[in-house]
Every structure is written in structure tokens, then in C-alpha cells.
Automatic annotation (TrEMBL):
PROSITE patterns: RT_POL. It comes from the Eukaryota. SUPFAM superfamilies: DNA/RNA polymerases, DNase I-like. InterPro entries: DNA/RNA_pol_sf (IPR043502), Endo/exonu/phosph_ase_sf (IPR036691), Retrotransposon-Effector_Assoc (IPR052343), RT_dom (IPR000477). This is Reverse transcriptase domain-containing protein. Residues 418-638 form the Reverse transcriptase domain. It comes from Solanum verrucosum. Transmembrane segments: none annotated.
Length: 638
């Protein structure tokens, strides 16, 4: 039904116009309390919303829009309601749109108006809008106390008009949301005191177990503190907006200093919570590039909403070719698919592929890479990591670590140093959530989704520490024609070079030529850990470094995020985390085996032209051996 009614409160934003449009385009009857402008603007909004007809009630606080096929006629109009009689396909019905006053005495006029309309009703009748009153306390969350006297007037009106309340359909389920650290907590003057008190516990055990115990206590303390200090910020906003409406009435009647102060205090608290709401949506949006300006809450919320829609999976084909639609079915299928994708296959031993890797890492470089870091080095890494990045399964963002460093820094340092000294990383550190990013618009199967790991911040600290040391030696290990992930090199150099080569071949050489463009299917997900260790050893990295890397990559545990819910808990036996600071460095080291294999083929005395079938076959042989040794697979579709 393409009919909308709206209550007046201020200015209508482009986003609210879009919300109204989407409502009526989906065939909904809208009873929306939306901010509207001057009464003279009703026809402007009629055009912008795409309706044929528009009317306002006598106070111009309710606007009703409809299209011509509904054939509407106003039959009752007052300050708090407007009733329109519609005819569609020779069927008549009436809709009364309500925008009630805040004062209970003023609402008595509304109940009389509605009862007057009811006296002449012989057709289907819908009454809806903002009544500014409820029937029972169970319908209220927060705000002013429930008043039985006001509810009684409303109930008498409903009974006298023989109206029936439309109940919501479906079962209300309370979903326990996992803990999520909110960055705006750090701006509260009590924040550090809460963390400090919770962190001071007596614990006997290894650094990882001690860190886990303290984080659990802090998580509980922050959750309880936030509930008492902030509560539900959205409910609080609604309550404050309601309070302002209530306090505006006595101020308009008697603008005394007391009434002014009462209103100003509530407005100040509302501004505070509006800022908190903006910070909340800004964190959810993860838009670290966005510059501060006027309130951007609506923009951030729209961004989050758009991203959720993009990530939403309505239906998908399982590995068995069955189409599933429920969240639980999709979640179970996702766990099965990615558990298989991260499972190691039988690989062939191809030692000749590693023969092209020289020993290049020196003793001094090994000692520097494996050196146990100081507290200052760990702090530098913590501050360099993006504090606003999405949190892992533990719910703590980097902002918590950065803001609480003076309290938790010693324990983080002990944990990182323990990792460098050979201690195995526990599951709570290496556990990651997989968020599934669509590779294309029309997602049909899990192969159309890219799994990105949301790791714990503690895991990122250790990974980044090793990464920062490895990147210093990479330029001496990686061939000059490899430009990705190497400091001082740009991948665009190879793009330009490829364009020049292809143009040169086309203009200068009249003989047959072959240009090969390669793409690895699920490149990060298929990396063999055994192959990675062999590559590191061939380059000359110490066993200490190889062991550190092995403990990082071989103890990965995953859960899959599907439509906001977490499914599964499984361990991988191959692959590198997409989104981990260390993964690009490790991947380029394994890819260097292929680069040096192809370079060796080019240097072969028999190598003359890619156009010869025999030499093309030799090149394909190098690719096949690399696949067999590394676990990589050439994407034949590309």
C-alpha cells in the first residue's frame, strides 16, 4: 500500500527521505514520526518522495502522502489527527494518522476526536502514529515512569471505538551479544581506574595465562561499568529527547531561570549522548580516513548498514550443491567449506625447486631478528598498529591496549618476550574470526567469498614485531622483478613494465610469441607450512626464527562469521591469515621460489624464445613443480 504519513518536528534529511521512499516502494503503509519543514514545503516533499497527492492536518504537524490509484479524501481533521478515506478497486477503508500532544489533558481532545470518527465508521479502519502514551508498563524501556491514569484514558478510547491492538508477530528472542570494547570509553575519567583495579590480581602462572586471567576480569569490570555509566545509549537518547519535549512546555509557559536551567541541563546531556552515538557508529564503520566535522552519525550509520547488506548472505550453494538459506545452515556449510580449504593435502617433495634459493641471511641479521624485544619496542609496535581496526574474538580493539599501556604494558611485554623465548601461543591468542568478503556482486558459492581473519590484537603485536624485523632483510632476499610487499618498491613498476613489453612485442616482433599471466587460486589459504619452513631454512634464517614463525602459523583456530553470528571452532593445517601483519612477508618469501625458478629457466642456455613449444612446456613444468611443492594452485579460469 503506497501511503505515507509523517509527524512534524524539524528538518527532513536526505537519508530520511530515502527511508520514506524505500518504505512506500516496498508497498508499506507508513506511520512515521519524521522531522518535516515549513507547511508550505509539503508539495516540494511530495515531488521528492514521488507521490501524487499530499495533505496536512490543521496544525500542519501531520502530513499524509498517497498515489492516485488510492483515491483519498479527508473526512476528519484536527490538531492531533487527520483521517483520510481511501478507495482502491471499489473497496473503501479509512486511515487515521495521529501525532498526540505531550500533555495528558491536551490528549483528551484527541480521544474525543477519534471517538467522533468512530461513530461514522462502517468500513475497515486503521488508527496509528505517535500517541505519546502506552497501555502497560511492559511496553516501556527507560524514560519517565509509567502512568496508569494516562493509560486509562487511552484504553477507554480504544474500547469505546471497538478498536483492536495489532500485536507484533514472531517470537521475541534475546540474543546475548558478545563483549565489544567501545573506544569512547577511554574518554571517561573513570576508565583507567576501572582497568587498574581489575588488573591488580594475584596470579601464579606463565605470562599468557596471567594475561588471559587479567583480560577476563577487565572485560567483566568494563561491561558492568558501562552498563551503569552509559546504559543503552539508544534508549537513553530516546529518553532525553522525550524529557526535552516535556520540559519545553513549562519553559514556554513560564520562561523562568529554574525552567531554563532544567531544560539546558537536559539538552547538554543530550548533546553528550549524541556525541557518544556518533563515536559508536564511527567505530562500527571503521572509517579511519574520515575527517571530523559536524555530526556524522547518520553517515556512519548508513555506511555500516550498507556494509552489512553487502556482507549479508541470503542463500548459498554448499559444497554438495545444495542451496541453503537459514543462518544455521549457511554457517554449518561455511565451517565445512573453510575447514576443508585450510586442510593440508599430500604434497610431493620437489627439492630441485629449492635449489635455486641461496643462503643469504647473515649471522648478525639472525641475531637481530630473533633478539628478545624490550618494553619500548613492544610499546612502539602497539602504537603503530591501527587501534580502530575491527576487534578479534576477544572483543578488545587496539585502542584499549594503547589507552591502557601504562597499566597493562608490563604484562604485554612479558607475553611477547615469552613468545620470542619459545613458549607456545595459546588458543585464546591465535583464535580468529573469518569475515567473508564478496569478490563479486552475485555471490553463488563460498568460492565467491574471500575469508579475512579478524585476529586478536595480542596476536597482531607478536606478528608485527616479527614482520618489522623481517622487512629489513627482504630487499636482499627477493629478486628485483618482485615488487609487491617490498619497502622501496612499487607493484605499479611491474604493471608499467608489462605494458611496455607487450607493446614492444606487438610492434617489433612479427614472429609468434606467448605472454603468460598467472593467478594463484586461494593463494594465502593454500600455503604449505612445511614448504614455508624449508624456504626459510634455505635462505639461512635461524632455527629460532623458523620456530617462532611455525608457532604463529601452525596453531591457528578459526570461527566463521555469517550474518553477524559466529559458527564453528576448527584448526587449520595450512594457509596464512589474510589480514595478519606477517602474512604478506611470509607469502612473498614462498613466492620467491617460483620467481627464481623462472629466472633460472630464462638463464638456461637452451632458452631462446617463449614461442617454442618445447620451452613453453619447460615453463609449465616449473609451474607444476611449484604447485606440487608449495601447495599453490594455478587458477585455470584466469
Amino acid at each position: 500500500m503506497n501511503i505515507l504519513s509523517a509527524g512534524k518536528a524539524g528538518d527532513l534529511s536526505p537519508r530520511q527521505i530515502a527511508d520514506l521512499k524505500s518504505g512506500y516502494k516496498k508497498g508499506r503503509t507508513g506511520q512515521n514520526i519524521m522531522p518535516l519543514q515549513d507547511p508550505d514545503d509539503i508539495y516540494q516533499y511530495k515531488r521528492r518522495l514521488g507521490f501524487d497527492r499530499a495533505v496536512a492536518n490543521s496544525s500542519s504537524k501531520i502530513w499524509v502522502f498517497w498515489n492516485d490509484q488510492w483515491n483519498g479524501q479527508v473526512i476528519a481533521d484536527s490538531h492531533q489527527q487527520i483521517t483520510v478515506r481511501f478507495c482502491y478497486q471499489n473497496k473503501f477503508f479509512r486511515i487515521t494518522s495521529v501525532y498526540a500532544r505531550c500533555n495528558s489533558m491536551e490528549r483528551l481532545e484527541l480521544w474525543e476526536d477519534i471517538e467522533a470518527v468512530a461513530d461514522s465508521i462502517i468500513e475497515p479502519w486503521l488508527v496509528g502514529g505517535d500517541f505519546n502514551v502506552i497501555l502497560n508498563a511492559e511496553e516501556k524501556l527507560g524514560g519517565l515512569p509509567f502512568t496508569h491514569a494516562e493509560a486509562s484514558d487511552f484504553a477507554h478510547c480504544i474500547n469505546n471505538c471497538a478498536l483492536s491492538e495489532l500485536k507484533s508477530k514472531g517470537k521475541e528472542e534475546k540474543v546475548v551479544k558478545p563483549f565489544k570494547f567501545l573506544n569512547f570509553w577511554t574518554t571517561h575519567h573513570q576508565f583507567l581506574d576501572i582497568v587498574r583495579e581489575a588488573w591488580q590480581i594475584d596470579f601464579v602462572g606463565d605470562p599468557f595465562s596471567e594475561f588471559q586471567a587479567k583480560m577476563k576480569k577487565v572485560k567483566k569490570a568494563l561491561a558492568e561499568w558501562s552498563k551503569k555509566t552509559y546504559g543503552n545509549i539508544f534508549e537513553r537518547l530516546a529518553t532525553l529527547e522525550e524529557l526535552i519535549r516535556v520540559k519545553e512546555i513549562p519553559f514556554e509557559i513560564r520562561p523562568t531561570q529554574d525552567n531554563r536551567c532544567a531544560l539546558s541541563q537536559t539538552e547538554a546531556e543530550l548533546r553528550k549522548y549524541l556525541h557518544i552515538e556518533e563515536e559508536y557508529w564511527k567505530q562500527k564503520a571503521g572509517m579511519k580516513w574520515f575527517k571530523d566535522g559536524d555530526r556524522n552519525t547518520k553517515f556512519f550509520h548508513a555506511f555500516v548498514k550498507g556494509r552489512r547488506q553487502k556482507l549479508h548472505i541470503g542463500e548459498i550453494l554448499t559444497s554438495q550443491g545444495e542451496m541453503v538459506q537459514s543462518n544455521d545452515q549457511i554457517g554449518a556449510a561455511a565451517v565445512e567449506f573453510f575447514e576443508d580449504q585450510f586442510r593440508e593435502n599430500d604434497l610431493l617433495n620437489c627439492p630441485e625447486m629449492l635449489e635455486n634459493i641461496p643462503r643469504l641471511v647473515t649471522q648478525d641479521q639472525n641475531e637481530e631478528i630473533s633478539r628478545v624485544p624490550s618494553r619500548d619496542e613492544v610499546q612502539t609496535v602497539v602504537n603503530e598498529l591501527n587501534g580502530d581496526s575491527t576487534s578479534g574474538p576477544d572483543g578488545f580493539s587496539g585502542t584499549f591496549f594503547q589507552a591502557s599501556w601504562e597499566i597493562i604494558g608490563d604484562d604485554i611485554t612479558k607475553m611477547v618476550r615469552a613468545s620470542f623465548c619459545g613458549q607456545r601461543l595459546p588458543r585464546f591468542i591465535t583464535h580468529s574470526n573469518l569475515v567473508l568478503i564478496p569478490k563479486k556482486e552475485d555471490v553463488k558459492s563460498f568460492t565467491d567469498l574471500r575469508p579475512i581473519s579478524l585476529s586478536t590484537f595480542a596476536n597482531k603485536i607478536i606478528s608485527r614485531m616479527i614482520h618489522d624485523r623481517l622487512v629489513k632483510v627482504l630487499p636482499t632476499l627477493i629478486s628485483a622483478n618482485q615488487t609487491g610487499f617490498i619497502k622501496g618498491r612499487s607493484i605499479t613498476e611491474n604493471v608499467l613494465l608489462a605494458q611496455e613489453i607487450i607493446r614492444d612485442i606487438r610492434l617489433r616482433n612479427k614472429w609468434q610469441n606467448v605472454v603468460v599471466k598467472l593467478d594463484m587460486a586461494k593463494a594465502y589459504d593454500r600455503v604449505s607450512w612445511v614448504f614455508l619452513a624449508k624456504v626459510l631454512r634455505k635462505f639461512g634464517f635461524s632455527e629460532i626464527l623458523i620456530d617462532m614463525v611455525w608457532r604463529l602459523v601452525s596453531n591457528n583456530w578459526y570461527s566463521v562469521l555469517v550474518n553477524g553470528q559466529t559458527y564453528g571452532f576448527f584448526q587449520s593445517s595450512r594457509g596464512l591469515k589474510q589480514g595478519d601483519p606477517l602474512s604478506p612477508t611470509l607469502f612473498i618469501l614462498t613466492a620467491e621460489v617460483l620467481a627464481r625458478g623462472l629466472n633460472r629457466l630464462h638463464e638456461d642456455a637452451d632458452f631462446k624464445s617463449f614461442g617454442e613449444k618445447r620451452l613453453v612446456m619447460k615453463m609449465m613444468g616449473v609451474l607444476a613443480k611449484y604447485e606440487q611443492a608449495s601447495g599453490q594452485m594455478i587458477n585455470k579460469n584466469k
